[in-house]
Amino acid sequence: MPLSLPSWLKIKPQRKLITQLPVPRFSFLGEQDGPVERTVKARWLPILAARPEIRRAFLVRASYEGPNDLHVVLALCSSAGPDVSLIEALRVPYAAIFSRDCPLDIVFASATHESQIERVCPPFYTAV
Question: What CATH number has the domain spanning 25-126?
């Protein structure tokens, strides 16, 4: 006789935690800041400080396709480029604060992106 589990006990397939999405057109709009954002930024600080390749970090609002397509982006300025282990480390405090349905967009910013971001948003982390 097959075992039938209630729906709340069934194991759901694991969601892919990291998805790379090409975004052909976007613009940075301004800083994302508030009490909750300051909490998550504070939890990210020791993680970022432990990574000498990270020079600066911004939490910035961005529009990907048009003015009504707004996203919050963690922009990292790194001398080493994308790092999956860093993304996973930053995801932990974020997930402890925000719901699973609130994705975190992360970009490893180029020098061009960094100059665009700093025009509209101060960094919340700068390496010493």
Answer: 3.30.300
Given a contact cutoff of 8 angstroms between Cβ atoms, the answer to whether 29 and 60 are in contact is: yes
Backbone torsions φ then ψ of 23, nearest 5 degrees = -125, 105
pTM of the model: 0.80
Q: In residues, how long is the chain?
A: 128
- What lies within 8 Å, CB to CB, of 22 at 6+ separation is none
Q: Average pLDDT by consecutive 10-residue portion of the chain (128 residues)? A: 43 51 76 95 97 97 79 93 91 88 86 94 96
